[in-house]
Amino acid sequence: MRRLIIALWLFALAVPALAAPPRPHGANCRLAAPPRAAGEIETSTTTWRVYPRTPDIGEDYAGCQTTWAPRPGGGWDVVVVMLVAHRAVMAIWPAPPDGTSPDGCRYESGRLTGGDPATCAALVKSMPHGCTARRNARGEFPAACTPR
After folding, report:
1. CA 20 to 30 Å from 3, out of 18, 37, 58, 70?
2. For the chain, what is the HEC assignment?
3. Is 4 contained in some domain?
4. What global pTM score does this model have?
């Protein structure tokens, strides 16, 4: 009986992981931490990182744009991975539980099936690496730090 209870408990833990869609494959899709060249997004409490930056994604790019948040105590947590082809978002990971992102975007089989194409297919804009530190030193962002 004890083995049955343990087996059912392990199965219950495994089901959500099995139901989750796999992380996308391609260039920059499996990075655990942001490279030094990653862009910056300043939030109200911290600085997130994005790689590759949108200006570095060409028409022929096929891969992912990943966003990370700093983990308390050090390291990085992946916030979102967007599968990109021809400068358009094809899918997001992890997918929201109901399949629709907070901004109403829904992707199925690499196609946008719900939401506004102008905003759903948008890549994440970020500042170049080092802008937050330069702002902290000068009290304002240099012109080169406009998010793109």
Report:
1. 18
2. CHHHHHHHHHHHHHHHHHHCCCCCCCECCCCCCCCCCCEEEECCCCEEEEECCHHHCCCCCEEEEEEEEECCCCCEEEEEEEEEECCEEEEEECCCCCCECCCCCEEECCEEEECCHHHHCCCCCCECCCHHHHHHHHCCCCHHHCCC
3. no
4. 0.75
